Amino acid sequence: MLRKLPGDHTRDLVSTVPTQVVFRPVVVPTPAIVTILVALFRALAGVVRTVWRHPVACLAAAVPAGLCLLYGWRTGLLTPVAVLSGLTGWRFTHPASFSRWVGLRLRAWWVLVWVYRRHWQPVMVVSGLAKHIGGREYLPRLLKVTCTPTADMVAVKMLAGQSADAWQERADNLAHGFARPQCRVTVGSPGRVVLTFPRRDVLATPIPALPIPSVPVVASVPIGLREDGAPYLLKLHGTHVLVAGATGAGKGSWLWSAVRGLLPAAAAGLVELWALDPKRMELSYGRSLFGPRYAADPADCADLLEAAVTIMQGRADRYAGVQRTHVPTVDDPFVVVLVDEVAFLTAYQTDRKLKERTLAALATLTTQGRAVGIAIVAALQDPRKEVLSIRNLFPDKIALRLDEPSQVDLVLGDGARDRGALADQISSYPQVGAGVGYVRLEADPEPVRVRAAYVTDTDILAMVRCYAGTGEAR
Question: Is 128 flagged in the annotation as binding?
C-alpha cells in the first residue's frame, strides 16, 4: 500500500508506476544437423559456381593436385612445368589468341578474387548501395567479371527495388572504391547493371588517319576507335548527325574522317559529297573533292540546301507507293551534306530572309530527307537552343569537349551526363582531347566514348590528288 505524501500526490505517483508486461520471446534452437547440411550445401554451391565461372583457373589447380595423388609428386610437378612451357610458347608466338583464350580469363579470375570480391562489402556499404533492414545487411550480388584488353566489366544483380540511376549517381564512389580511374554504369538485363572499369585509356593519344576503304562503303564509315580499342563505325545512311564541341575540340576530325571513309563510294557514283563551309577554313582545304557542290557564301549555302530539298521532294514523289527506303545507286546516290559551322548560317546570320531560308531548308531535310537518301552532318560550337533551334531533329548526336556540364545534356539529351558522358571533362590539350567525344545514337541511349582519327593536311592533299573529280556526274 502506498503511503500518503504531503500535498496528496498519491494519484500522480500511482500513474508513474510501470504497468507493461514484458514477455521473453521463445527461442527455438536450430538442430545441429540442419546447420551442418546448410553449410555443406552452401559450400557445394560455391564450388560449383566457381568451377562454372572459372573453368580454366580451376583446371590449372585441380589437374596437378590429381596427378600428385595418382602418380606421385614428380609427375604432378612435371605436368605444370610442361603446361607452363607450352603456354609461354603460345604467348610469344600468338599473343592475340593467347590473350583471348587464357590471359584475359586468368586476369578476370584474379581481379574477381583479389579486387572486387575482396572489397565488395565495404565499397557497397560506404557508397550507399547496400541496405540495412531489420538489423540485417543486404548487398547487391557480384555475378561475373569479364576482362577486355582495356577494361574490367563487372556484372551485378541489383537489390530488389533498386534502380540503375542509383548506381549511375555513385559511379565516382565505385571508381575510387576499387582504385580505378573511372567507372561507367550501363543497364544490362532487367535487374542487372554492368560496371565498366577502364584500366588504360587507348584514346589518350591521337589516332592517325585510317586507311581509305578498299571497297565502296555507304551505310557506316570507319571513324576512329572506341574506348575499348575496337574500331568505331559511324552510321550515316538513314540518319542525320550533329557534332557539337568547343573551339579546338576536333570537329574537323569527325568531318574529314567521314569524307575519307566515303571517298571510294563517291568515286563509284554511289555517294555525293556536298559541303557548306561558311567559315572558309576547314572544308575549303579539300574543296576539289566536292566540285560544284561546295559553297562558302551564305547565299550560296542557302541555294545549295534548297537544291537538296528539290532532290528530296523529287525522290519522295517517285518513291511514293513504290519503296519505303532508299537504296544507293548511280541514278539515286546517297547525298551527304556537310556543314562545318551551322550557327554561321542560322544564329549569326544578319540577313533575316536568308536566315529563314536556311532554317526552313535544314528543317525540311532533317525531318524528311533520311528516308530518301539525304543526310545532314552538321558541326556546331554553341549547343544552346537559341543558336540552333532544330538540334532535336538530329537523331544521332556527338558531344566533343564542352565548356559546361549542363551543355552535355543539351547536346546528348537529358540524363546523358549521369550515364557517363563527361564531355565537359575532356582535356583541352589537343594531343590528349582533340577528337574525343561521346556518341549517343537514336537506337541506343547509352553514350559511347570514341576518338576520331586525325586527318592531317598532308592526308587531305593526298585525298585530293587521288579522288578530286572522280565523283562528278557523268
Answer: no
Q: Report pLDDT digits (tens) over 410-450.
A: 999 888 888 888 899 999 998 999 999 999 998 787 899 99
The superfamily in CATH containing domain 220-467 is P-loop containing nucleotide triphosphate hydrolases (3.40.50.300)
Domain 107-200: give its CATH code: 3.30.980.40
Q: Is 89 annotated as a binding residue?
A: no
Amino acid at 334: F
pTM above 0.85, yes or no: no
Instruction: Give the tens place of pLDDT for each residue, 145-180.
Output: 999 888 999 999 999 999 988 998 899 899 999 998
473 appears as a binding residue in the annotation: no
Domain ranges of the chain: 45-93, 107-200, 220-467
In angstroms, the first-to-last Cα distance of the chain is: 120
Q: Shortest CA distance to 261 belongs to which of 221, 207, 226, 230?
A: 221
Is 76 annotated as belonging to a binding site? no
Strands 131-133 and 136-138: antiparallel
**Sequence-distant (≥ 6) Cβ neighbours of residue 364 within 8 angstroms:** 309, 312
- 378: annotated binding-site residue? no
Q: Is 369 annotated as a binding residue?
A: no
Between CA 116 and CA 177 the distance in angstroms is 10
